[in-house]
Design goal:
Elements: H1 6-15, H2 20-27, H3 31-38, H4 46-56, H5 60-67, E1 87-92, E2 98-106, H6 109-119, E3 128-132, E4 146-149, E5 163-168, E6 173-181, E7 186-190, E8 196-206, E9 209-211
Parallel strand pairs: 1-3
Antiparallel strand pairs: 1-2, 3-4, 4-9, 5-6, 5-8, 6-7, 7-8
């Protein structure tokens, strides 16, 4: 049975004034099949996660996190190695903006092996990988590097003072150093180009590992 946070999906639909039937039509499926997915009786596929993310207007990594379809403790073989269950699910552009991939990809085992020691503490959570794709600009020194992080629904305490994946109001995600953050979401971040900005955060997750 899939580990899925069905309430999150229903809340997302309610917040947008959408119905389960409307989502089912978007997916080209019966409403009963979508209902079984959200109740954990049917596992969500990667393709469905991408389509649901597009329908809700949220990052596919967030959908995957709540759907429980990335590597988690308790998954067969997970205790030994991170394995291909940790997926490359996003890219980070020259301006530091994080963009979800429509189709998450498997990572080479060599990359996963290098990342394993640094992210071992996050084994009880979903882990997401994002690749830097910056041929110019301040992030070009990390071009092709892979970052690992655990998606968050709030501002993680460990994110303050660290390079983090910051979720902003409006659904944007950026890579930035989080200087400080208030409980109400107001925060100061340092962008890759060195510019300091005042933003309102929805979430912030520290980068657990960066593999060149």
């Amino acid at each position: 049975m899939a580990e899925i946070d069905g309430a999150w999906f229903h809340n997302q639909l309610d917040d947008r004034g959408q119905s389960l039937r409307a989502l089912a039509r978007h997916l080209g499926k019966d409403a009963s099949a979508v209902s079984r997915t959200f109740s954990g009786k049917r596992r969500m596929t990667m393709e469905e996660a991408a389509e649901i993310a597009a329908f809700l207007g949220v990052p596919v990594t967030e959908v995957m996190h709540h759907a429980g379809i990335t590597g988690r403790a308790g998954t067969p073989g997970y205790g030994e190695r991170l394995g291909p269950k940790v997926l490359l699910s996003a890219t980070i552009g020259e301006n530091g903006e994080v963009r979800s991939l429509a189709e998450p990809q498997l990572l080479p085992q060599a990359v996963l092996d290098k990342a394993q020691p640094a992210i071992a503490a996050g084994r009880n959570r979903a882990i997401i990988a994002a690749q830097v794709r910056a041929s110019s600009g301040p992030l070009s020194i990390w071009d092709d590097a892979v970052l690992f992080f655990a998606p968050a629904d709030s501002i993680e305490p460990d994110a303050t003072g660290a390079l983090s994946i910051c979720g902003l109001t409006g659904g944007r995600q950026i890579l930035a150093k989080l200087d400080r953050a208030r409980k109400t979401g107001e925060a100061t971040v340092v962008l890759p180009a060195g510019k300091v900005e005042e933003v309102v955060l929805v979430s912030a997750a520290p980068v657990l590992a960066l593999i060149p």
